[in-house]
Amino acid sequence: MTKAEFVATERAPDPPPDLPPDMPDARNGPRPPDASSPASSGDAASAVTDLYRGHALGLTRLALVMVGDRGTAEDIVQDAFAGLYRRWPRLRDRDKALTYVRSAVLNRSRTVLRKRRLPLRVVHQPPVWSAEAEALVAEDRREVMEALHRLPVRQREALVLRYFGELSEEEIAAAMRVSRGTVKSTTSRAVAALGRMLEEEL
Amino acid sequence: MNGSEERLRDALHHVGDIVQPGDVPPPPFPAKRRRVFARPMTMGAVVAATVVAISGVAVGGNALLDRTAGESSAQNAAASGEQRLSVFLCAKTSSKWACKAKDATEQQRQDIERRLRALPGVRRVDYVSRTAAYRSFKKEFDDDKNFPFRVTPANISPFFQVRVEGTVDVKAMKAKVESVPGVDTVIVVPRKAGA
């Protein structure tokens, strides 16, 4: 991109699209993009780059708590953004790009975990919270992470989006592609099950 | 809100914080040009992490220690089986959840220092203030036109330079210290080749 184009992009008069509210990722990352992505111009590089700058960190952290190792988490997020970039020209509702990429991260995490359960599973790193992993995570937190990972995958996702992503019910529903009612019931079942597991360990 | 929900939140954020801003690779597609200077605050956390990493190794390893500890033979000390940790305090630009985007308080600073001194195998603890860290950083990198960030005193974190005996398990120490309130990150300063 030439200097002139760069300046033009900077001063793009396009009104910023309303990205879904995303305060949580703000706490997890440098800050979400200031919605300066000129969606209407269809400049995929520009819009997706802004989204990446603002949310790649938060989403990598999300993938890490889901799959347990950094390398896989990074790959998942890179793939998800590469997919968004490819589909950008055909993406109908660009305001929902963040929801889209968040769903992609969840789906890919789920696929990775499923593959690891297959008989001829790929060799993978022990989770960062495990005892083998160089004492990165203290004992009491390890218990919580292990209990979380004994829950069914949908319950785990609901909990992670709520207590890590701090998303609203509506946002969780959009990311998991289920109804709000399902989010409610899944979350309450998950909290109850987690509470029971943690109590048993006392 | 019950205990297990709070524990879950704490554990998730603690694990999430293992990924730091500097760890995120460049985007997997042709990115438009960076606008670092247009939005310095957006990059604040990245600056902090990078500065933390660089100053922890390059500055903390030489210039700073020489000055604050008044020792000219810092390198010799490293060679004699000593290990070093840089314990960076929370700053407004910290991306760690537990920092809550606030500077570490004076109370926290004192508490961290007390705890560091009480750890087994710790030989020496030096505090490097934000101003001192900034000055050394400027000195080290001022001529470096390639350095990608504009560094101001606001996005440099104050830190403790800790020297521990060579036999101590520094990784375990790092994990322990990082869970102390007010600590952003702990960097184990790599030993010099041949040390």
Describe the structure.
Chain A has 2 domains: 16-125, no CATH class; 130-202, Winged helix-like DNA-binding domain superfamily/Winged helix DNA-binding domain (Arc Repressor Mutant, subunit A), CATH 1.10.10. Chain A has helices at residues 3-10, 23-28, 44-67, 70-87, 97-117, 139-148, 153-163, 169-176, 180-201. Chain A is mainly α. Chain A contains 9 helices and no strands. The longest helix of chain B has 25 residues, at 44-68. Chain B is an alpha+beta fold. Chain B has a 4-stranded antiparallel sheet with strand order 2-3-1-4, with helices on both faces. Chain B has a single domain (38-189), classed as Alpha-Beta Plaits, CATH 3.30.70.3040. In chain B, helix 2 packs across helix 5. In chain B, 41% of the residues lie in helices and 15% in strands. Chain B has helices at 3-16, 44-68, 74-79, 106-118, 130-141, 170-178; strands spanning 82-89, 122-128, 159-165, 183-189.
Task: Fill in the keyword field for this structure.
heterodimer, A: 202 residues, mainly alpha, Arc Repressor Mutant, subunit A, 2 domains, 9 helices, globular, B: 195 residues, alpha+beta, Alpha-Beta Plaits, four-stranded antiparallel sheet, 6 helices, 15% strand
